[in-house]
């Protein structure tokens, strides 16, 4: 995957609340092109693997339970400076600290249930995209 791509998931509580369309609209309006998209449910095992980097953190068990609690929408997005620009669009992890106009400010319920994931580096964007999508599912 090129370095102008990032990976996102719309997290279970945001999908369940019916916010998928509004969140995708904000992403597209911000200039990102959708290169892959799917509705899927993560098993506990897959959610644990996805967030393995946080294995030693106190919230890991809660995070795995949450991310496997219902369908998520996974997507690969393309834009110049995709990783950093998408992190800016989603806002701070804790919605109480997220800036106005960000997706988390608009839709996150709490620091844990915070509506969206965004890759934190080009390297992780590629790993995470490949974790969710086969080559023939990416345009
Ligand atoms: P993400 O990876 O999902 O884009 O979120 P992030 O970079 O902003 O935050 P990160 O530190 O990577 O944490 C991953 C996710 O774990 C949950 N979390 N809960 N209860 C807590 O204190 C806590 N801290 C983090 C959130 O769902 C966070 O997005
Ligand atoms: Mg993170």
TrEMBL record:
<keyword id="KW-0460">Magnesium</keyword>
<dbReference type="InterPro" id="IPR034907">
    <property type="entry name" value="NDK-like_dom"/>
</dbReference>
<dbReference type="GO" id="GO:0004550">
    <property type="term" value="F:nucleoside diphosphate kinase activity"/>
</dbReference>
<feature type="binding site">
    <location>
        <position position="93"/>
    </location>
    <ligand>
        <name>ATP</name>
    </ligand>
</feature>
<protein>
    <recommendedName>
        <fullName>Nucleoside diphosphate kinase</fullName>
        <ecNumber>2.7.4.6</ecNumber>
    </recommendedName>
</protein>
<feature type="binding site">
    <location>
        <position position="59"/>
    </location>
    <ligand>
        <name>ATP</name>
    </ligand>
</feature>
<keyword id="KW-0963">Cytoplasm</keyword>
<keyword id="KW-0418">Kinase</keyword>
<dbReference type="GO" id="GO:0006183">
    <property type="term" value="P:GTP biosynthetic process"/>
</dbReference>
<feature type="binding site">
    <location>
        <position position="104"/>
    </location>
    <ligand>
        <name>ATP</name>
    </ligand>
</feature>
<keyword id="KW-0067">ATP-binding</keyword>
<feature type="binding site">
    <location>
        <position position="114"/>
    </location>
    <ligand>
        <name>ATP</name>
    </ligand>
</feature>
<dbReference type="GO" id="GO:0005524">
    <property type="term" value="F:ATP binding"/>
</dbReference>
<keyword id="KW-0597">Phosphoprotein</keyword>
<keyword id="KW-0479">Metal-binding</keyword>
<feature type="domain" description="Nucleoside diphosphate kinase-like">
    <location>
        <begin position="3"/>
        <end position="139"/>
    </location>
</feature>
<dbReference type="GO" id="GO:0046872">
    <property type="term" value="F:metal ion binding"/>
</dbReference>
<dbReference type="Pfam" id="PF00334">
    <property type="entry name" value="NDK"/>
</dbReference>
<keyword id="KW-0547">Nucleotide-binding</keyword>
<dbReference type="InterPro" id="IPR036850">
    <property type="entry name" value="NDK-like_dom_sf"/>
</dbReference>
<comment type="similarity">
    <text>Belongs to the NDK family.</text>
</comment>
<comment type="subunit">
    <text>Homotetramer.</text>
</comment>
<keyword id="KW-0546">Nucleotide metabolism</keyword>
<dbReference type="InterPro" id="IPR001564">
    <property type="entry name" value="Nucleoside_diP_kinase"/>
</dbReference>
<keyword id="KW-0808">Transferase</keyword>
<dbReference type="GO" id="GO:0006241">
    <property type="term" value="P:CTP biosynthetic process"/>
</dbReference>
<dbReference type="GO" id="GO:0006228">
    <property type="term" value="P:UTP biosynthetic process"/>
</dbReference>
<comment type="function">
    <text>Major role in the synthesis of nucleoside triphosphates other than ATP. The ATP gamma phosphate is transferred to the NDP beta phosphate via a ping-pong mechanism, using a phosphorylated active-site intermediate.</text>
</comment>
<feature type="binding site">
    <location>
        <position position="11"/>
    </location>
    <ligand>
        <name>ATP</name>
    </ligand>
</feature>
<feature type="active site" description="Pros-phosphohistidine intermediate">
    <location>
        <position position="117"/>
    </location>
</feature>
<feature type="binding site">
    <location>
        <position position="87"/>
    </location>
    <ligand>
        <name>ATP</name>
    </ligand>
</feature>
<dbReference type="GO" id="GO:0005737">
    <property type="term" value="C:cytoplasm"/>
</dbReference>
């Amino acid at each position: 995957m090129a370095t102008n791509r990032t990976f996102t998931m719309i997290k279970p509580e945001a999908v369940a609340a019916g916010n998928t369309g509004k969140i995708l609209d904000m992403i597209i309006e911000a200039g990102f092109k959708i290169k892959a998209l799917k509705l899927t449910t993560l098993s506990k095992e897959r959610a644990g693997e996805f967030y393995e980097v946080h294995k030693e953190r106190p919230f890991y068990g809660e995070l795995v339970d949450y991310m496997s609690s219902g369908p998520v929408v996974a997507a690969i997005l393309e834009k110049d400076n995709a990783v950093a620009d998408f992190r800016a669009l989603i806002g701070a992890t804790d919605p109480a600290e997220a800036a106005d106009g960000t997706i988390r400010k608009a839709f996150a319920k709490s620091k844990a249930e915070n509506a969206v994931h965004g890759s934190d580096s080009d390297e992780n964007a590629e790993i995470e995209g490949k974790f969710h999508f086969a080559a023939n599912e990416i345009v």
